[in-house]
Specification:
The chain has about 160 residues and is an all-alpha fold. Among the domains are: about 15-70, no CATH class; about 90-145. About 70% of the residues lie in helices and about 0% in strands. It has helices spanning about 20-30, 35-45, 55-65, 70-115, 120-145, 150-160. It starts with 19 loop residues before the first helix and ends with a helix.
Length: about 160
């Protein structure tokens, strides 16, 4: 049998044919998880990228990013979701830290205010308060200060000669 060969070879996928969910996963891996672009592209979109030479790979990744309609919108959405998640996580951690500090202060206060407290228990309460107070003051200062409104250049100049 004479087999007819096709001169056309597939050089990659057409960006407009890729589902938005795959692009979302790709951007999430690259932007928030720190996965290299080629690995994320291979995992989410097209594993055939490994069959290309390095120059073609770079061109393919850049071409995909530039030519996918809505790439920047999806990227903004992913970054906004990551920012929102970090804010929720930080808020949760701050609440837990304040609860822990409050519980430690209550326990130290109970130890110090008992009428039959001996010197060892009083010393324990004092040491607990000494250990907790800097963290408590830092947490209180953090809640009253809005980080986004501080002058970042002025803060950086404190650390740079």
């Amino acid at each position: 049998m004479n087999k007819k060969t096709n001169t056309y070879t597939k050089t990659g996928i057409i960006p407009s044919k890729v589902a938005a969910s795959k692009v979302y996963d790709y951007i999430k891996k690259v932007e928030t998880q720190g996965v290299p672009r080629i690995k994320a592209y291979a995992e989410c979109i097209d594993p055939e990228i490994y069959n290309m030479n390095p120059c073609q790979i770079t061109h393919r990744l850049d071409y995909f990013q530039k030519s996918y309609k809505g790439y920047n919108d999806i990227k903004e959405m992913v970054l906004q979701e990551e920012k929102d998640w970090m804010l929720r996580r930080n808020s949760s951690l701050q609440n837990k830290a304040l609860d822990l500090l409050s519980n430690l202060l209550d326990k130290a206060n109970d130890l110090a205010s008992k009428p039959d407290t001996d010197a060892k228990e009083l010393n324990t309460a004092i040491n607990t308060l000494k250990a907790v107070m800097p963290a408590f003051q830092a947490a209180g200062a953090r809640t009253t200060q809005d980080v986004s409104q501080t002058d970042k250049k002025a803060r950086a100049s404190k650390f740079i000669n």
